[in-house]
Amino acid sequence: DIVMTQSPDSLAVSLGERATINCKSSQTVLYSSNNKNYLAWYQQKPGQPPKLLIYWASTRESGVPDRFSGSGSGTDFTLTISSLQAEDVAVYYCQQYYSTPHSFGPGTKVDIK
Amino acid sequence: QVQLQESGPGLVKPSETLSLTCTVSGDSMSNYYWSWIRQPPGKGLEWIGYIYYSGSSTYKPSLKSRVTISVDTSKNQFSLKLSSVTAADTAVYYCARAYGQLAPFDHWGQGTLVTVSS
Residue B89: what are its φ and ψ, rounded to 5°? Predict the structure, then answer.
């Protein structure tokens, strides 16, 4: 099974500043045959289900603001919020869909400083 | 716009079977993979398993002996049964859709809290 880890566990960022979340997989999630990273990022606000933000490690889901961006390849990935807004307060999860069982990182809580 | 809605008992006794149904509206179930994912209170997300609209299923190995996921495309529903539950199975249970066997979850239900307690 692929184990996902995230860092930090939580972070507080001033409004308008950059937030960076890291995600690491225990084995590669890069499929060599199509050069795609099977890695997604989700945002979960209190009392709500997770919302898909990013897939293929760097492709934004339709309707997701462009302040959210994903990068990385292989086993190391990053979610960046370029200019934190109040509505971005949430827990963010990475997820690998390279193989079953699908697995999620433990989450990173983002707050306003 | 596809919508998913979980339904079922909110309280289940230890050793009994948890049963939930997810009703899909706004789109056909065809050609998608339909998953169950759970989240214990204050904790992270755990994928339980999925079923293809045709009926083939895959489960998380650590839960496989206790899980059954079934589909009824005529009713636009799929269901979860988890047997021999304990307090560790207390969680919010989500149903979710993916467009492929190896694809992200692009639509989720609102979730339903199931508590295991006598």
Answer: -90, 0
